[in-house]
Amino acid sequence: MKQGLIILLFIFIGLATRAQMSREQYILRYQLLAIEEMGRSGIPASIKMAQAVLESGNGNSQLSRNSNNHFGIKCKSNWRGARVYHDDDEKGECFRKYKSVEESYLDHTNFLMSNPRYAFLFTLPPDDYKGWAKGLKDAGYATARHYDKSLIKIIEDHQLYRLDQKQTIRPLLANSKSPALNKGMSDKMIINPFNSRKKVTINNLEAVVAREGDTYEILAQSLGIEAWELYNFNDQGAGYRPQPNEVVYIEQKHRKASKNVEIHTVSEGETMHFISQMYGLKLKPLYRRNRMKPNEQPQTGELVYLRKRRPAN
Question: Using CA atoms, how far apart are residues 210 and 206, in angstroms rounded to an integer?
């Protein structure tokens, strides 16, 4: 009896650790990545998301879990990266293996853009998801007879055409009965998990260090906050993309510096925004404190007041 209970317990633990991601959860998790790639390539975000959902089984397939391959892309003769062998149309076929889900999304874009047989798709209107779906089928992306209809159904069932207008799909939290996104999921299934990022503290403010390919939208989703907050916290306009290793504040900056830092001497090339980020200070009050107009820049060697108002001339 005890032995049977132990076996059942191990079965239960095994099932719990392999918790399935729902389609809605998958869309919420990776929608910003699809939008970002649409901006880079012109591939409709709705199409990319629908293909990822279909090819990866909502991120639950063996290929996507073990190899981060969310689009079922096979090795081909020009592939020089890691590979894995998986049964598909034939036994033991070679598939591309990626270090992250992001890498899979990026390679899917590159794969379509660099392959001449898909070139005609990029002449379609950016919101013609039906044309893209039919074109992918006709170009032989997949062997399924109704591949185009499957993509269109996913797009329309989940209103993914909203992504083509850069409108994110938001969960109906009040009515949601789905488990938490991270429950039972492997860390490698999460885009840029916050706990894997380098955190820094500047002027008693918490910040993260941007990585290659980061955007405020991707950062915001991984941090569980809104993208507009990051733009606001960092005094940046819509569409700004942080550079690799750039500090990104994840909370509101201070109005003035700490007592032990009164004045900054400007070095060559430094801007007021650079100085505001260096000390974790809001940009507009910094301009006012120094009697400067918005977008006006200091001269090399000039003194910028960080706490008290600049003396009048």
Answer: 13
